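Private note to self, pasted from the team thread so I don't lose it. Backbone tokens:
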């Protein structure tokens, strides 16, 4: 008789994985999407000290970020905000090719013209097909890496919801959508951006973040393909 019933342990494991993925990628997206402020620093200190962090505590990326936050205890919040804001702008906003990497847009890295209008349109249409739009207060391009990571987080959350409801066919379809999205719009270019950004990173927090981003994307691909 075909095994058409998923054991409770398998269900709980799958649900936990999707929830963890959603939380992790929402966090990764939030760093790219928001200039550092007091609330972000407080959140970082919480995420990288709590027992149930969505990231591996023993990893090198975790240690770099946690070490930076620990070593900066003597600095005022205002000093940290200033230091990290300058670094964030240099790494992620593409202010000048002289002292920063090209900004993390899929169209910049993954198109012939270096702009990627076709990619932007295709990604926008994909968001729309999933019933998603961009908030009016969002000033990022549709192909900005932070927006792409947000999309993965949303799909993973939906997969968790479908798993909880027992809709495993829908969950499998979402898994396929995430893998296709990764392979088409993120993985072909993100390593180049991360390598370039590492050359300009000056704080262990962002050095660690870039490593964490790379590790998380690779682990997600492996997990989905498994």
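Design output:
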């Amino acid at each position: 008789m075909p095994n058409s019933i998923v054991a409770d342990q398998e269900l709980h494991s799958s649900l936990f994985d999707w929830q963890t993925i959603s939380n992790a990628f929402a966090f990764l997206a939030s760093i790219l999407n928001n200039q550092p402020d007091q609330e972000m620093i407080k959140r970082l200190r919480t995420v990288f000290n709590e027992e149930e962090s969505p990231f591996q505590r023993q990893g090198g990326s975790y240690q770099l970020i946690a070490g930076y936050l620990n070593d900066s205890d003597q600095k005022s919040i205002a000093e940290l905000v200033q230091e990290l804001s300058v670094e964030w702008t240099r790494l992620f906003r593409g202010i000048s090719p002289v002292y920063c990497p090209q900004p993390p847009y899929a169209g910049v890295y993954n198109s012939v013209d270096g702009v990627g209008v076709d990619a932007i349109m295709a990604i926008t249409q994909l968001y729309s097909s999933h019933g998603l739009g961009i908030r009016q207060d969002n000033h990022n391009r549709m192909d900005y890496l932070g927006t792409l990571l947000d999309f993965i987080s949303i799909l993973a959350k939906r997969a968790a919801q479908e798993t909880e409801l027992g809709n495993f066919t829908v969950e499998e379809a979402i898994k396929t959508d995430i893998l296709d999205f990764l392979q088409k719009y993120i993985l072909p270019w993100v390593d180049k951006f991360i390598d370039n950004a590492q050359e300009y990173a000056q704080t262990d927090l962002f050095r660690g973040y870039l490593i964490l981003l790379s590790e998380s994307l690779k682990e997600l691909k492996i997990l989905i393909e498994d």
